[in-house]
Design brief:
The complex is a heterodimer of chains A (235) and B (551).
Chain A: H1 2-18, H2 44-53, H3 69-82, H4 103-112, H5 146-151, E1 157-162, E2 165-173, E3 178-183, E4 190-195, E5 199-202, H6 209-212, H7 218-231
Antiparallel strand pairs in A: 1-2, 1-5, 2-3, 3-4
Helix pairs in contact in A: 1-3, 2-3, 4-7
Chain B: E1 40-41, E2 55-61, E3 74-76, E4 79-83, E5 89-93, E6 99-103, E7 120-122, E8 125-129, E9 134-139, E10 145-150, H1 154-157, E11 166-168, E12 171-174, E13 185-190, E14 196-201, E15 231-233, E16 238-243, E17 269-274, E18 280-285, E19 300-307, E20 310-318, E21 323-328, E22 334-339, E23 349-350, E24 356-357, E25 368-370, E26 384-386, E27 391-398, E28 400-405, E29 419-424, E30 432-438, E31 445-451, E32 460-462, E33 466-470, E34 475-480, E35 486-491, E36 501-505, E37 508-515, H2 520-524, E38 540-545
Classes of the chains: A alpha+beta (235), B mainly beta (551).
Chain lengths: 235, 551
Amino acid sequence: MLAFAQSEPRGLDVFNKSCATGYCHGEKGMPGGAPRLAARGFDDAYVSQTVRVGIPGTGMPAFGTTLDRADLLAVVAYVDGLNGVTPPPNPFAAGPERRRLAPDAQRGRQLFADQVRAFARCSSCHQADGIGIAVAVPFSLVPENVAALRRIATPEIETATFEGDSFPALVLNKSGAQTKLYDLKTLPPVLRTVPKNSVTFQSGSTWRHEAMLASYNDQELEAILVFLRAVVSQR
Amino acid sequence: MKIRWLLVTSPLTLLSLCGQDGATRADWPSYGGTHLAWRYSALDQINTANVKKLAPAWAFQTGDFDQGLQSTPIVIDGILYLSTTHSQVFALDAATGKMIWQYKYPMPRAGGNIQNRGLAVGAGRVYVGTYDDYVVAIDQKTGVESWKVAMNDSRQCGCSITAAPLFVKDKVIVGVAGGGAFRGYLTALDAKTGRVAWRFYTIPGPGEKGNETWKGDSWKYGGGATWMTGSFDAALNLVYWGVGNAASDMYSANRYSGQGEGSNLYTASVIALDADTGKLKWYYQEIPKDVWDYDSAYECLLIDREVRGVMRKLLVHINKSGYSWVLDRTNGKFLGAYPIVDYHNWLTGITEDGKILGRVEPVENKTTLICPGPDGGKSWNQVAYSPRTGFMYTPTLEICSDLMAREQEPVEGRGFIGGTWNHRSPADQPAYSHIDAYDPVTGKRMWSMRYKYSLLASMLATAGDLVFTGDPEGNFFALDARTGNKLWSFQTGGGHRGSAVSYSVKGRQYIATPTGWGSIAGRAMVALWPEAETFRPGSTLMVFALPEGAQ
């Protein structure tokens, strides 16, 4: 009971900022754009699970990846309280403490997915640490330094010709009547499905990874490498 | 002090409309009917004299019912295209309802802002936005995916695509939805290849004019979502789009710089962009320093009407504030504004040059009763316009809210509202809604129909002098476009949150309406009307026609 009493102000604060936003739940668990949460007969296990992983396919997002552990515990305890439930002494709501990136890796993460660069950012084609669009295969190696990052060769990218238009293409699937490929002529890459017998390929392309790095300077690329070393399990 | 000034329209105006054609005929080719967004069909086989014989022709259950069915069907050459909440797309025989193909987008593995309001068709493809921020093009004949491209990382921006894309010339133009910490934009894609042709950020970046209206880094997270569908004037080659509120919605101290003209540009504005290049031609900020979440994302009705004796190309635009703005769509000049709600206490009036007087703003950590509330004097469901009556038909809500501002830090992928609200009735009576017919230029209310819950379905006007819409209790009904008298009603078994259309196949006129309850504003009704908790979700397209031989 002591734990609950201590966490309540924090839980209330998290609830008000993350849950009671008008579009979603109402204050004190009253109905808003999302359902009522007060006096619903929820138990701690249900509340914990739902706050952490959300409800797929509905408006209820997963807060397990965006709230830190203490905030998660506090907001679950608050919603438990709205249902007349006291959280158990060893709540499992938050799971293990989330890994925290070192400041330079965190800066690299921000640069990797920098919204300000529009499509000219790593995350237009790569996914790491749960962000980005997985056009390229998952990282298995991180280049030693910025020079190596710039030199990355991409023999797998071919030149496709379709409807009189030639463009660099990363082919996913040539078997079957339809060919699936990423069109890399412009950013962001477009996943296109074209009839197999209407597209021709030549090996190699004019596409260069280095050209995709143009929005970053060396120092920024180094920070991105630090981030990747921190999150990629290298094989 | 309340300034509500009337513009003078002469009866001759309606006779001089022949230059502009915003009517649909056999097809319903675009979200708003045509690019002018009239939601008006020139078909008149079903009319005031025979509408009482209107009967179901067929129905189609999509099976994808969470959030209800909020879509606008598209009909081209006897085939009806329909999208559902999770971006599932169906092609149906428009005369029989028989399914021709189905496109199954992967179901989401997470929760989020998951709703879908329609699609676009053109250049042999069907285009739909997705809950995870992709645009997908589907072969119109086969239902096979043609291309797919990510507009953003939905986990990072907390954004999605809920609105129908707009097909313009050789491009697909698509907006973005979300109440998160991100920077809004409008994107045009090449219809054939899916390659980005242009992108317009609704918040100017450093060095661009308008960026000075943002404090510090706030422009990076300032909102400005383009979460509904715009319009297009082919003669002017301009695309018009409504831009949503600034973020955080209610707390402005961290985003309002006090510098430059306007504030937090181009949020709470209507923008006009060159259709080929995406370059800004003009903008008009309806609500400088929006702190009420009044948005401005709704539809842009394009009509040519006489204003003070001069024929003008107009853009009529309602936002959540309960006011309708009348702009010159050639240059964005303000021509007038009039209230569409009975209860509005957030201002005392709007001056002849568009300035808002007597603002009542939400304050930090304390509630203020403000009408209308952030659900709006109108929700996103669309108006209709009939060139036969010259009236605009508008669904209007009378819901106030206790608003509170709260300071909030922007966090990637998370909501960024900066406050909260609780729905309240107007001071002296229960909340209600109404359908009105307006002179769209002067704001003169020609007739009104009152309803006890929120009306959240779009209006459809036809040359049979009928206005169709549905209510949350499941009734789909027809009103006399000139008088508002209810002429016909049918219980569809599910609440209405979508947009009805009309089309014809082999000379037979059909009226098609989505049914099935859902959406944020739909669920929020429970706070005012507890019995609304019993309204059921669903997702059925109901199609009506006159019985064979009764035409």
